[in-house]
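Dear U.,

For the methods section draft, I wanted the exact inputs and outputs in one place so we can describe them consistently. I've listed the two proteins in the order they'll appear in the manuscript figures. Please don't edit the token lines directly; just add comments below if something needs changing.

First protein:
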Amino acid sequence: MGQEEPDLYRDTWVRYLGYANEVGESFRPLVPVQVVWASYGVATAYVTADAIDKGRKAAAAHPQDPTRGVAVVDTFVWQSLASVAIPGFTINRLCAASLALLGALTRWPLPVRRWTTTALGLAAIPLIITPIDRTVDFLMDSSLRKLYRAPGEPPTSH
């Protein structure tokens, strides 16, 4: 019974690079927009590296299988949705709404409202991860994965 090698992109600190854009969105009220875009660059690099890694592992495990590119596509689409697009949009809207509401409902100075918005965005990140992951699994299992999964194959877990 050998232990399975940990996945660099899912079981180590490298996984947190996928959340860089959520952190960038949280800090949007405080930093230049270029910093936010750079955070999307980090998250996209993470997604791309994970997809390439999964493709290499699939190719090594099944060298004669012509469908091994499915691992790359599945990982890239899943990670793009679950790690970049949906959480980035969610944190962006949460922070924009909280900044607007704080402006309308309080007399706090702008710097306090901006820091409060950033804190709310950062605090929301761990709360949105699991629901978004499960939603993306459901969406992909209900659509894209139907195109390439063998009948009766169970859904994959990320």
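Second protein (the one for the lower panel):
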Amino acid sequence: MAAGPAIPGLLLVLAATILLIFVSVSSPTWEKISFLNVGSGDSITHYGVFGFTGSKTQIGYDFNPSELGFDSSKLNTEIIHNLTKVLILYPIAAGLAGLGVLFGLCGAAYHRAGTVLMLLATSLALIVTLVVWVIEMVLFGIARDRFRDQNIPAEFGNANWLGLGALVALALGVCASTCGVFGRYRKRRDAY
């Protein structure tokens, strides 16, 4: 019998998982999703989790828009390079949230233990997503300001806001899962 208390948390965690997957496949894999868009016209460079427009897929990268005439000495430091490596936490958070969905399906279909495990996996995904979202906002905020200092147009991309949406969905999912843990899981007795 399906357990109704687990369903709201399950749906919220599913939504967060989908958003985190979209963020994880950002530029250079999927150019429509990026954290930072630099340049204008046909020479726009999109920055994502695993690189930027025209780069190979890798963990950690340097900001290298040489075609824009950018002096990268203030931006391409060891600290900034290491912060781009931290973006690997987005796919990790997507995996944890996906694990929460699987546990939530067990909780919705079978037993309260699935809902408890969904709560634990979702809480861990929430912490990871919060950490990586704060780091990427700082990282790409610094990069945006450095580009703008040299009169190069730079704007935040949509991956920042997809990550925020996933963060909010995970937070609500944790609350709903907590309520779902204490919900009613027994069958009602029919009064005859």
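Candidate sentences for the figure legend, describing the second protein: The CA atoms of residues 7 and 146 lie 45 Å apart. The chain has a mean pLDDT of 88.

Thanks,
Y.
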